[in-house]
Design a protein that fits this description.
transcription regulation, globular, DNA binding, HTH_MarR-typ, DNA-binding, two-stranded antiparallel sheet, 9 helices, 4 strands, mainly alpha, 180 residues
């Protein structure tokens, strides 16, 4: 057992893992079953909502798919009227993927599906505990980014508007070498 002082770090890690998986399962179930999307498709719509005009390859990188798998996913999203491929600028050889109006609307619903169970879980904590937790999560996210990079992948299902509402994004700060 690993202790830091009198604290059992492995137990805390296990609690964090169980909490993370339970909450992830809950919001992904809503996004996938209720909205008819795969996990990757939900992440792709949210990613394109925040950053439209990515190439298929870059979109795949951000959601963790190979280029062929990303192309198949974009084909399926396009067939459902959720995204469209457009020609880029004269200097861009690749076509760019943009969400349609329907794709933007579905991305909003996916973000709400993600946010609702998280807000519900936090609502059981006192406001001061929520603030402490926010600070701890910011530290953890900066450390995760320092170890693995890939900020766009870390934040593939983030609601950037909600994230940036009251403070800077800790992952964005870590990518720029800012923050504590």
């Amino acid at each position: 057992m690993k202790y830091c002082g009198m604290h059992d770090v492995e137990r805390t890690a296990n609690l964090l893992g169980a909490t993370s998986l339970a909450l992830t399962d809950r919001f992904l179930r809503e996004a996938t079953r209720e909205r008819g999307l795969s996990t990757s498709s939900a992440a792709a719509l949210v990613t394109l909502h925040a950053d439209p005009g990515l190439s298929v390859s870059e979109l795949g990188r951000r959601v963790g798919l190979s280029q062929p798998a990303a192309a198949r996913m974009v084909d399926a999203l396009e067939a459902h009227g959720l995204v469209e491929r457009r020609h880029g600028t004269a200097t861009q050889r690749r076509r760019r993927v943009h969400p349609t109006t329907q794709g933007h609307q579905l991305a909003h619903r996916v973000l709400d599906d993600r946010n609702d169970p998280l807000v519900h879980a936090l609502s059981h904590l006192e406001e001061s505990d929520q603030q402490v937790l926010a600070g701890l999560l910011e530290k953890i996210l900066r450390q995760v980014h320092a170890e693995v990079g890939q900020g766009q992948r870390i934040c593939r299902l983030c609601d950037r508007d909600r994230c940036l509402r009251s403070a800077p994004c800790p992952v964005g700060q870590a990518e720029r070498g800012e923050g504590g």
